[in-house]
# Entry
Amino acid sequence: MSAVGRLGYLGGRMPGRPDPGRRRIVAMAGLVTTALLVVVCQLWYLQVLEGGRFQEASEKNRIRVRPIAAPRGILFDRNGLPLVDNRPAFTLSLIPRELDRDPVQRDVTLGRLASLLQIPFAELQDAVARVSPDSILPVRVRRGLSIDEVARVEEWKLELPGVIVEVEPQRAYPTSRFAAHLLGYVREASDDQLKQGRYRRGDMVGQTGLERLLDEFLRGKDGGERIEVDAMGRQIRLIQSTEPHPGAQVVTTIDRRVQEAAERAMEGKAGAVVVMDPRNGDVLAMVSTPAFEIDRFTGSIDRNAWLRVMQDPNHPLLNRTIQSQYPPGSVFKMVVTAAGLQEGTLVPSDRVNCTGEFHLGNWTFKDWKKEGHGSVDLMRGIRDSCDIFFYNAGLKVGAPAIAKYATAFGFSTLTGIELGGEKPGLIPQPRFSRRGRPASWHAGETVNMSIGQGAVLVTPMQVARFMSAIANGGVLWKPRLVQRIERPEKGVVWGDAGSVNGHVELSPMVWAFLRQALWAVVNDGGTGAAARIAGLDIAGKTGTAQTIANSKSSKGQDHAWFAAFAPVKDPEVVVVVLVERGGHGGEAAAPIARQIFNTIFLEKVAAVEIRG
Amino acid sequence: MTFGIDRRLLQNVDWPLLGATVSLVTLSATTLATLNVGRAGGGIALRQIAWFGLGIVALTIVASIDYRRLVRAAPMLYLAGLGVLVTVFALGRTVSGARRWLMVGPLSVQPSELFKLCFVLMVVWLLSTRWAQPVNKTVLVVAAPLAIVPAALIVKQPDLGTALLLFPVLIALLIAAGMRLRILGGLVLAGLAAAPPVWLALKDYQRDRILVFLDPFRDPLGRAYNVIQAKIAIGSGQLLGKGVAGATQSRLSFLPERHTDFIFAVFAETWGFVGCLVLLTCYALLLLRGFDIAASTREPVGRLVALGVTALVATQVLVNVGMVTGLIPVVGIPLPFMSYGGSSMVVSMMALGLLLSVRMRQFQ
# Structure
């Protein structure tokens, strides 16, 4: 170590010379000595001056800690109606410290408890084994005890040392499956979540939906009491108490009335409904069916029930509004129309004679109506959803333009809704070779694309945003679910004024044409006639999407779409309905949309009448 | 080669230092023997003595190697240590939510303990290169990441106590190496100035955690319990202690972590204020010998090694005792030589080995 020989401050000291490094080390030694003396003073204070008091405290030391769970914040709909509430529930807990230290005695207690409440013995043992035997914090074993079960535990209390029943607030829902995907379920923190260090064992954590998204706000701050108990476990004295702080209140954009109506309308069907305000992107309802029983997930769900849900072939946990991708079917014809009109490759007076068949090379593409529609112009093509017309139109407009407009309308990109797991969908993008012709792209793919088939995939939420853009003249709103979050003492702690994530520029003539055509679909004997409500101008488009998978369902394998808005003049609401394997959009989906429009507008009309 | 111990070196062994250590370990073993810890029951006193035996071997080996060789190897040791920390991060064993242990055969080893020594050697290596003369701001900028990077890895385990330990040691070494105090003062001021914006950038739950850290009584179900119980245990020991039979607080296991981080409270309950004075005197003796070795060593590398090691032990002792007596917030740091734990014991003994190594070669 030759470098070390000659070091400025460190080296080069001559014997007898003052040594500044030494001075500093002596100073540090002095500092440490002083610190040790401070400790001695503290010990003198604790042991000699206050010793008697602590002596007394140690003699009757039987302290129990009683956590008081903070009630979770409540989610409200846009009119102040609660979407979810809390109610007190009984929880069975074990206090490791107060269980018998002798393993045999402890197992006797646990065995007694197991037979008393029909809880698997192994489950109790697991619960105890997971935590230190010194822990004074209760370990929650089972939530949601019935009154009867509570009575049984209380009756045997003396034979069950270390077993207590706590009262905790628990989530309560209007109905068992109400807005299950939107709200999401709340469950005890999993081992993985505990590892992140943000939660304590036994904490209730939002696992999906808004409960998870807003968990940080919704979870309050738990309080607790430190009490002194006698040998029987009765409270002698309250030593210290910290009030729990309830979680923040969330005002969502949901309209509970609409949500309930949409759920009612979808009962017994698999599919999705999105109701959106095209003026600001507010999501008024979000329904995915089949739904899971959200209240059962909150409490102690047994293994079999859990597996039944997980392995259900209908995937009830899937939020179909944003996590499932479907071919849009004829709804997509509006994209082709917009692209063609704006680019000038399509004019309203274009005519095609629909015979029910369309030939391209060796391929034959059929219309959904076997006998054909006869002579069809653009307006009729949309109104009657003529496939042959759009096969021709698609080839005229071209796949690149269709893809460009589809992307502009927000397909194949996330809507940005804040719920997790959103899927982007897919718009096939023809790639170009050097000569400007699409490479490895077959004209048949363009044909398929023009009626929303082939590789095109969308989510119901994307369709709602698309319909909103047609209704509002091209603004793509980011779907908004949460208006604001309020804390009781602090007021609004978080707010979302809504944000735009895209614009589609079309000439006013094109917008007007699109709306006119959509109006005709419903009100001029088009495919959406089943959605017609007298006195309300609804505009919409049906879609019947063929799926690749073979299905043995009696209704066939087509997904039914209906995407609509109303009133046409000044659109306030967009309703998108998708019924999986529902058959024709006009027959399966349009009536559901009608029911929802009915709830929204007719009841409102009634209310106005009363006031007037 | 200075491998193996020649007679001249043996003459310079620091017997008071070793005497204090043996006393501490004796106190540790007797205290542990009174505790009935864990489901397996007793036996930890014997195991602690076995660890001490292993520690003696480690001490002898370290002392017999010339510390300059170790300092020269420091960059390698440091990088290896970092590698092991990353390994722990990736595939360590999890005990009650913390990932601090690596399985080596049947033993679980806590690499962050061993890393502390690598860290001391590394900083000494840096400060004694020709490049680092004089020790100025640039050196500080280079030295800071040496502590920050491993600290971040250790915090993630999570082991906040050990991570925070690195910084006082770094500062002590910088001071001893001649860094101008004004620069360090400026650093402290800059840190204080940075606090408010950082505070505002934190999320609610993160702020909560810091507040609970500073004031455990905010969280009545968490750390405050340990502090209260430790205080009751210590206080009820009074002047002369309750003796082994009377130490109910500890025996009835009201005190959590009583054989590891909170062992001082058990000792204080059993032997009272007088016992504590004896214990603290042993530590004072040990630490002052360490400072003395540093001060009296004229060879700069040896001086820094001795000081770094002494600062390491001193910080652990002060933080642990301060925490158990309620003077400072609770940080999980074991009390060297007293707390039960193999890694801690062996590493503390190796630290002494370094000290002896410097001492024995002081007058070469």
Q: What stands out?
A: Chain B has one domain: 7-360. The radius of gyration of chain B is 21 Å.
